[in-house]
Amino acid sequence: MTIEPLTPDELLTTTRSVRKRLDLTRPVPLELVRECLEIALQAPSGGNRQAWHWMVVTDPELRKAVGSYYERSHQAYFESGSSAGALFQDDPVRAAQQRRVGESSLYLAEHMGDVPVLVIGCIAVGDGGLPPGNQAGLWGSLLPAAWSYMLAARARGLGTAWTTLHLAYESEVAELLGIPGDVRQGVLIPTAYYLGETFAPAKRQPLDEVLHVDRW
């Protein structure tokens, strides 16, 4: 499999959330997904527990069912007034960007079930379920690996997006896919070849607006 000739900085700054540009018609080989997940397994985890699990959904009917839950959750998210497209309306420049994000988010919600591969990153929590209070240590043992998967996919010509809206129906998706009760889902990553040629770094807030050295 061809690896894109990207420097580390290029890989990190051009791995974008791909929604409208996912190729919904081109199959993605399972071996390619496995290759990306092998990279993901090199990520750090708390205590080196490696408690992650990866649900890879390729069956058309199962993808359609997961997509239906996702679309239902996205509809509630949109109607809440807190969706991406509704944010920063007092800033004309940023509002325009947010509208584009909102439009692409809606497109993905309508087509989630058509994406060739859905990867759900999960983590084992044991019989006690999610710990009370701060859960950063738990999710910090899954999210770096999920991001590594997305970086590996980008380097191999695949587009991905970080999504969590399906978690409003986590128990229903777990039942659908046979995920055990002591395993919790953390992220849904639609995966497909992408359309077009290039991705560029996104416009972000200036570092000095969010940087705090020694004291806030």
Automatic annotation (TrEMBL):
UniProt keywords, alphabetically: Oxidoreductase
Protein name: Nitroreductase
Pfam families per record: Nitroreductase
SUPFAM superfamilies, A to Z: FMN-dependent nitroreductase-like
Origin superkingdom: Bacteria
Family the entry assigns: Belongs to the nitroreductase family.
Listed GO MF terms: oxidoreductase activity
Signal peptide start and end residues: none
Keyword Protease: no
Domain named Nitroreductase: residues: 14-183
Gene3D superfamilies to which the protein is assigned, alphabetical: NADH Oxidase
Keyword Repeat annotated: no
